[in-house]
Amino acid sequence: MKIGFIQFHPEFGKKEKNVEKAVGIIRDIDADLIVLPELFNSGYLFTSAEEVENISEDVPSGYTTQSLLHVAKDTDTFIVAGLAEKAEGARYNSAVLLGPEGFVGLYRKAHLFKDEVKWFEKGDTGFNVHDIGLARIGMMICFDWIFPEAARTLALKGADIICHPSNLMLPFCQKAMITRSLENGVFSLTCNRVGVEERGGERLEFTGLSQIVDPKGNVLALASEDEEGTQVVEIDPMEARDKTVGINKIFQERRTDLYELS
Amino acid sequence: MKIGFIQFHPEFGKKEKNVEKAVGIIRDIDADLIVLPELFNSGYLFTSAEEVENISEDVPSGYTTQSLLHVAKDTDTFIVAGLAEKAEGARYNSAVLLGPEGFVGLYRKAHLFKDEVKWFEKGDTGFNVHDIGLARIGMMICFDWIFPEAARTLALKGADIICHPSNLMLPFCQKAMITRSLENGVFSLTCNRVGVEERGGERLEFTGLSQIVDPKGNVLALASEDEEGTQVVEIDPMEARDKTVGINKIFQERRTDLYELS
Fold it and tell me: What is the CB neighbour count within 10 angstroms for residue B206?
């Protein structure tokens, strides 16, 4: 199975341009599963609710999802993409999982970072796993990484590959995702963006370093800090079904009798 | 508050020698809390149940605990030390927390690594936090690091400092402990050992790199890969009461409504 990421620099507010760019790259590469960044079609640094309202869209009927569904079908590719979702009067920082045969799943970001609470509702979908035949896919978005329960829930539900669209600014996530892969025996695929956004007196620099990690903690692909780039690697997702570290069975040996996690 | 580790090379089976060496170092340094490695008094590579039976001891009445209690009182130091415990016919890979006024707490390793299941029962104490006045202390041992629930349980119960006696052979733990500190907003103090043990046809090399990490993921102290060494740093344990990352409140914002962790 070939899985990859498209680390790129969305232009703020230019939805059609960003979507066309991503679609073009997907047409050019050969992959079974491609992950795009968080909010890949809109950019990140909103300055008003109106901006979010204008760019967010229904899933799966909106422009972005429909464009990606089209290329997913044409190229026989599964796609995970982060976008601003509009649903029943609320807006969510969401990720969609799309495939050659149509819409597969939706994840609404559970743990919002900083000012995102001004623009989005906290996600209500929970952490669900979607079997696409080739593998079982889980989704989480950016800051979800700091809560070990997000990846843990996905792994306990059977995810082989955690797809992790991101707009990272802090330097800790990439190393933490190695731990997430190891502790859960899963592949993780973090697709970050690059570039700088300056709007409304604020300046954000995104840190790239998109990466793919295998269940033993090996980094299979690592992108640049500041340049766009697409990488695809061949993996055997069944490696994520083997929950061992040496002879230890890290899922069977969990001491749920001793954990207190409420 | 001054906290530190004694990374050293125990000689297998030479309990008195190992204990005297640790006691001597503790007498020479100025610290409020000192952590010793896992099984610091016995060495690691047992080849028979008889060996474990012979070297393990009652807590707190055994030689090791009594020796450490003596130096804890003399030097006004709290000590966390890993040792083989004998209790009611069972043996445990345990850690004790001792202070100037006596015995404080016991932790029995919950997640046993590899052949340890041949020598020890799985721990039954759970993950408890002990308030020593200066700070609230939690203990976990070595391979517990790979189970995020161990550190999480300690942090949710209020630990400021996670003391982590270890005998590490794999290269992943130290970076994972940075994630453990960050995701839980706690200090972590991993005291590893160094040296090689060759017994019964097996050879184990321990990887050193004992470290102290603050709640923001900064490494405050890092020992050598292969040499003994003691390091002490000054910390403010109250930094662990501030569970924020930027403006995010990482404990309050946990989405326990969405986690499925059984």
Answer: 23
- Whole-number average pLDDT of chain A: 97
The pTM assigned to this predicted structure is: 0.97
B182 in contact with chain A, both atoms CB, cutoff 8 A: yes
Q: Tell me, yes or no, if A250 comes closer than 8 A to chain B by beta carbon.
A: yes
Is A147–B260 a contact, with Cβ atoms under 8 angstroms apart?
Answer: no
Say how far apart CA B162 and CA B160 lie, in whole Å.
7
CA of A153: how far to CAs of A202, B252, B260, in Å? 35, 19, 5
- Closest partner residue to B178 (CB to CB) among A113, A175, A260 is A175
Residue range B126-143: mean pLDDT, rounded: 98
Angle at B61 between CA B106 and CA B151, to 5 degrees: 10
Which amino acid appears at position B257 of this protein?
Answer: D
pLDDT at B36: 98
The pLDDT of residue B171 is 84
Is A173 tagged catalytic?
Answer: no
> Cβ separation of A261 and B172 shorter than 8 Å?
no
Closest CA to A255 of B100, B215, B67, B124: B124
**Is some CB atom of chain A closer than 8 A to the CB atom of B143?**
yes
Q: By the CB < 8 Å criterion, does B127 face chain A? A: yes
As given in the structure block, the two tokens for residue B109 are 């390793």
Closest chain B residue to A144, measured at CA: B254
Q: How far apart are CA B256 and CA B262, in angstroms?
A: 12
Report the gap between the CA of A28 and the closest CA in chain B (Å). Answer: 37
pLDDT level of residue B262 (50, 70, 90 thresholds): confident
pLDDT band (50, 70, 90) for residue B170:
confident
pLDDT exceeds cutoff 90 at A192:
yes
ipTM: 0.96
Domains in chain A and their CATH numbers? 2-259 (3.60.110.10)
The pLDDT confidence band at residue A155, using thresholds 50, 70 and 90, is very high
Shortest Cα–Cα distance, B74 to chain A (Å): 35
